[in-house]
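User: Sorry, what's this?
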Amino acid sequence: MNPITLTIIYMTIMTGPVITLLSSNLFVMWVGLEMNLLALIPLMTKDSNPRSTEAATKYFLTQATASMILLLSILINFKQLGLWVFQPETDSTVMTMVFISLAIKLGLAPFHSWLPEVTQGINLSAGLILLTWQKIAPLSILLQFHMLINPHLLTLSAIISVLMGAWNGLNQTQTRKIMAYSSIAHMGWMISILSYNPTLTVLNLLIYITMTTPMFFIFNTHSFTSISSMSLMWAKMPMAMPMVSLILLSTGGLPPLTGFLPKWAIITELMMNNNLPLASLMAMAALINLFFYTRMIYSTSLTTFPSNNNSKMYIHQPHTKTNNTLPPMMIISTLMLPLSPLLL
């Protein structure tokens, strides 16, 4: 792809959520979402194969439907109140439509089925943007107006998302689909606490991004697209093998790693608000997530070939890929739990 074109695309992707975050006008927020949507499609089809084209088409149709629902709710609200912002007087049906549109964009259950298929069909770099940066703009709108949305609707979507993300990830062997179902489950954790403490939602999003980014960097550097291909990590990058295991355990929420912090804080907040059934159900679903992360660790660390390590040969090859940002991101994604008193 032309470097100038690629620069414009990335600048548009970066600008879209910023416009949504900084705006107080609903129509301008919608414009920011559309910029984000249209700029990602060329990155999805960069490989130019039928699978990526199909994934980009699914993504466009799904996101365009969500955008039209959101625009319709904005126009109905403007017709009723004459304002380009949601108010406590806004009709509850309008706010339900807003939540449905944002749930589609975030990949929340029961509107989640497009996310694993799209993530599987695109390249790993576009998949990283889809599962991290693309979540910021819709979630920022949800954070601004969550008090106007029925809390029972938020709780129901959170429960379904956590259960679907955990259960459907069990029978997956493709790393991109596993990370997509992990994203669905993490979105459920974020939405579950939105009615009680929105600050924990932001903390969960930041930690989720810091854990997902190094995993995709590793997958992209050595083309680990399936669990079976991850068994080659022992020969390609033995020094990173224990760190990958730690990142996966951190993503699963195992103490004393960074990923335990948001789950610990969210469960504590739910129990303080007398919501013990939801906290118990989400804690049990987290164990299912931890199971398929452990299965990936088994393929990475415990399944090795009966041969000598040939990493010295890879080091001297001129085409060996390196990523200088990977070590600090690995440290952040695994060792940030001691900072929990400051973060909370």
Q: What stands out?
A: The two ends are 43 Å apart (CA to CA).
